[in-house]
Every structure is written in structure tokens, then in C-alpha cells.
Specification:
With 291 residues, the chain is an alpha/beta fold. The protein has two domains: 3-123 and 279-290, Quinolinate phosphoribosyl transferase, N-terminal domain (Aldehyde Oxidoreductase, domain 3); 126-276, Alpha-Beta Barrel (TIM Barrel), CATH 3.20.20. Helix content is 44%, strand content 19%. It has a six-stranded parallel beta sheet. A four-stranded antiparallel beta sheet has the order 3-5-1-12, with helices on one face. The chain has a two-stranded antiparallel sheet with strand order 2-4.
Length: 291
Amino acid sequence: MSRMARHDSLLRGVEATVRRALNEDAAFNDVTTSALIEPSLRGSGGFLMKQSGILAGLPVTEAVFREVDPSVRFKALAADGQQVKRGQIIATIEGPMAALLGGERVALNFLQRLSGIATETRRYVQAVRGTKAKILDTRKMAPGLRLLEKYAVRMGGGQNHRLNLSDQVLIKDNHIAALRSYGVGLTEIVRQAKQRAPRGMIIEIEVTAADEAREAATAGADIVLLDNMTLAEMRRAVSAVAGRCRIEASGGMTLPRVAQVAATGVDYISVGALTHSAKALDISLEIESKR
């Protein structure tokens, strides 16, 4: 799948997501606007960056106003994935004032959150520049917003881990604990997964020590996940795997630490903080009446 097709696939169904958000906000029953704003009044506005960062969410923002009132005209002045600066106008809108006011908060909520995720992702990507490590997201995302948040990660230069539980076999600690209670070891766990999973599916398994990484790689795992290891333990695991499969590091990843993790020789670093702790980027919509 091409890069653009992948981005487009992550935006599929955006209208349904936007509709749910607008209904949640009762955007079509705005009692304040109904009481004060004449239906004939028109307005225009600009989306103003109040801090610098990486932009993500313009197509979603446009979809919000298209859902509120198809007559609203939206014009993007920047592109998702672009570095934008404080004070920059990134898009303009024009249409019935009631529609602009009704969609304002939902549009900003999407745009600020997704841009915050893209900005945080870019920081991590830049921190590992010059190494082979790729920054991945996780499934630690706001329920109902996964496709959009994964899209934002890609806009920041990161890569997506599995989209959902059906995408890839990922054998975690609780799977292993459940099977070990029946006397099943790592080698047999990997063998069973390879036999029973859909043909061609990636098999990844979590390990906590270098000898477990070696055993999983020997058993035929496609990826071993080094969970909450120290840097020294990661280096031992990389040496033990010796290139027989790919290696992902996860657990407690922070911006100051991620470059050191990348230097151990892992292929991927998954970072939950990209989505569960990213701070929304400060963006406002400045609206004025248009006569």
C-alpha cells in the first residue's frame, strides 16, 4: 500500500466520527446561537496557530463544517504533516455565522488533539534520527479515535503498529502466563501461533530477558518485543537474536531515553506517550461577521 493510500485508509469513516462528535456537542441545538444570531448573518474566520508544531487534522476539520452546513467554504492554507509556526493562519472558512459557531469547538478539538499527537511524534522521530530505529504507536488511544490518532502519528513521521487485535499476532505477558500454567514454553507458544494464525501473519512475542529473545528468534518469531528492559539488557538481547528476526523495544519510553534505546540496535521503539500523553497544540478560530 502506498504512503498516500495508507493515509487515506486511516481517514476512512471520518464522517461518522465527526457526526458522533457533533451530536455529542449538540451542535444542531445550539441554544445560545439560536437566541442571538440571525440566520441571515454570515461570517468568515481563520484558524490561527498560537504555538508552532506539526499540523494534522485539516481534512477532519473540513468534514466538521461540511457536516454542519455544506455551504460553508473551507480553504486549507497549509498541509497535514507540515511544520507550522506560531502566528500562521493555516485555513480559512466562510459561511453562515451560525454554522461557524456550531462547528467551532468540535473542529478545534480534532485539530488541536491530532496536531498535538503529530508534534509529539515528530520529537521522538527526530530524537532517533541517524539510527535504524523506527518510532511506532501503540493501541493506547482514545476509544473511537484510533484511526484518526494513528493518522496523526504518520503525519508526525512515525509508523503504525497493528491497527487492532486482528492485524497481527502479538503474544503478550498474560498470554504467556496463561499458557505456562499448562507447562507450555516459549518455543511451543511460537510454534502454535505459526501453525494456527492466518497464513502469512506476523508473529511477535514479548520477552523479558536475552535468553528468551534468543529462544523466540530460534523458534521462528518474526519480531521479539523487549519489554521494560534496561539498556544493558537490550544490548544483550540484540546480540542474542543476532539478526534472525526484528526487535521492538517497549515500556517506559520517554523523549530523553529514546535515543539511548535506539543506539542499542533495535529496529522499532513503540511509544504509548505519542497518543495517551500528547498535549493538544494551541490553535484558535478567529471569526468575524461578514456583511
